[in-house]
Prior knowledge:
By secondary structure, the protein is α/β, with parallel strands linked by helices. The chain contains five helices and five strands, in the order βααβαβαββα.
Amino acid sequence: MKIIIINGPNLNLLGKREPEIYGGKTFETYLHELRAKFKTLELDYFQSNVEGELINKIQEVGFSYDGIVLNAAAYTHTSLGIGDAVKAVSTPVVEVHISNTHNRESFRHTSYIAGGAKGVILGFGLKSYELAILSFL
């Protein structure tokens, strides 16, 4: 089974950025832990701060992978293009967020991705990714 985690803007700064919200662990460290936990899966990873690159990656893998775990970060609340890309592909997508976006600023309460996603998991820290992966098994 092939699953890809796609992370959006500023998630390359995990471990440094606002640790009170996002924790102190880098995503690379966490990804190593996920791969060790899910040894039978082909678990790929892509991160970009650029909206178009995220759309291109969704389109690239969206017909050949078994699942996409997508944390589009701030683009969740602004990008019709990413939302449309999620709807356009046949691979199921689970939207994830590390923080509970509904406990944050009101603009973060809207998702342009959720309507096309298989489901949404938020507020469980990095464990949100693990829960998303489990939803494909």
